[in-house]
Amino acid sequence: MFKKKSILTFLQAQVAAFVGGITDYGLMILLTEVVELHFSFSILISGTVGAIINFSINRFWVFKNQSGYSSHINSQLFKFALVVLGSISLKSFGTLIFQKLFQIDYRIGRLITDLFVSYGFNYPLIKYWVFRVKKNPNVIESN
């Protein structure tokens, strides 16, 4: 059974992903259609911008895992950067596969790929690795 806090955290994370994702997707279209970059390069640039927005929202609103210690945020940034590198790689490769093998427009292929990457890769790693809160062993939880 899900706890209310878990559901709320999941929904907040989806809002963060949506805001970062809309920025990412819109910038990808702009860079590909207007600037005429290949979509793989557009995904790299737009994914980075979307990731910065996503990280900020996750850190300060969703997981509220703020710390006065710079090493703590540095650790989170490093882990998040690794997730983003994996995410961008999966999105670029998935979009390319849909476009080359299945002749699906890159914009549609990207949306399909994003669904799998967001829920199967990004969310679990961000929640359970990047912003994981270590429980205090001295605190006894009650149900």
Structural class: mainly alpha
Q: Please, what is the average pLDDT?
A: 87
Please give the domain count.
1
Judging from the principal axes of the Cα atoms, what is the shape? elongated
Oligomer: single chain
Q: What does the largest sheet look like?
A: none
**In sequence order, what are the helices and strands, one letter per element?**
HHHH
Task: List low-confidence stretches.
Answer: none
Count the beta strands. Answer: 0
Straight-line distance between termini: 13 Å
Number of helices: 4
Residue fraction in strands? under 5%
Q: Report the radius of gyration as a whole number of Å.
A: 17 Å
Briefly characterize the structure:
The protein is built from 4 helices and no strands. The chain has helices spanning 4-34, 39-62, 70-102, 106-130.
Q: Which key terms come to mind for this protein?
A:
143 residues; 4 helices; mainly alpha; 0% strand; 79% helix
Explain how this protein is built.
With 143 residues, the chain is mainly α. The protein has one domain (4-130). The chain is built from 4 helices and no strands. It has helices at residues 4-34, 39-62, 70-102, 106-130. Helix 2 (39-62) runs antiparallel to helix 3 (70-102) and helix 3 (70-102) runs antiparallel to helix 4 (106-130). The two termini are 13 Å apart. The mean pLDDT is 87. Keywords: Membrane, Transmembrane, Transmembrane helix. InterPro entries: GtrA_CellWall_Glycosyl, GtrA_DPMS_TM. Its main location: membrane. One of its GO terms (cellular component) is plasma membrane. This is Polysaccharide biosynthesis protein GtrA.
